[in-house]
Amino acid sequence: MKTMKLVIGIISIVLSLPIFLQSCTAVFVDAISAEGGTGAASGMIMFLVMLSTGIVAIATRNSRGAAVYCFVTYAIAGLLGISVTGAYKDLIIWGFLSIIFAILFFISLFTKPKQNEIPPPPNQYWNYPHH
Q1: How far is CA 128 from its chain centroid?
Q2: Is 36 helix (H, G, I), strand (E, B) or coil?
Q3: Is residue 6 within 8 Å of 54, Cβ to Cβ?
Q4: What is the enclosing helix (H) or strand (E) of 19?
Q5: Residue 12 near residue 54, CB atoms below 8 Å
Q6: Alpha-carbon gap, residue 85 to 55, rounded angstroms
Q7: Nearest one of 13, 76, 84, 79 to 43, comparing CA atoms
Q8: DSSP secondary structure string, 41-107?
Q9: What mean pLDDT comes out for the span 10-27?
Q10: Mean pLDDT over each residue of the chain, to the nearest integer
Q11: CB 94 within 8 A of CB 15
Q12: Which has the closest alpha carbon to 43: 99, 103, 90, 100?
């Protein structure tokens, strides 16, 4: 599961860049059209959540508490992305992706970490010189 958390964190950080660029474009379009859409603000919040949660997922992939944090923040970002209305419909895609990430982190809470196999101790009898 540590590898999954690492991969999700990297994907989240990489995908936060297009979310940021689309949100900047939406801010510009909202400013020109003066319609008062909420897609740009939701996109900026989604960008910040995806970036920060991706960093947390990478940095603390051994922690169960961090997995709870990532689950909650991805779920909130997913609900935000899915519930957005307006011209910025790409945020729905990022919302569904955040929900998938939240489900994966939820599953990771209930799986046991793989234990490293410890070799048996050496036989002490053979370490002493024989007479």
Answers
A1: 54
A2: coil
A3: no
A4: helix 2-33
A5: yes
A6: 28
A7: 84
A8: HHHHHHHHHHHHHHHHHHHTTT-HHHHHHHHHHHHHHHHHHHH--SS-THHHHHHHHHHHHHHHHHH
A9: 90
A10: 83
A11: yes
A12: 90
Integer Cα distance of 19 and 24 in angstroms: 9
Q: What distance in Å separates the CA atoms of residue 19 and residue 39, rounded to the nearest whole number? A: 11
pLDDT at 45 over 80: yes
Torsion of CA 41, 43, 47, 53, to 10 degrees: 90
Residue type, 121: P
**Between vectors from CA 58 to CA 41 and to CA 90, what angle results, nearest 5°?**
30
Do 76 and 56 touch, CB atoms closer than 8 A?
A: no
| Structure tokens, 25 | 């474009």
pTM metric for this prediction: 0.78
Residues constituting the chain: 131
CB 37 within 8 A of CB 88: yes
Nearest-5° angle of CA 92, CA 57, CA 22?
Answer: 30
**pLDDT tens digit sequence for 112-127:** 766 665 665 566 555 5
Is the C-alpha dihedral spanning 12, 15, 20, 26 positive or negative?
negative
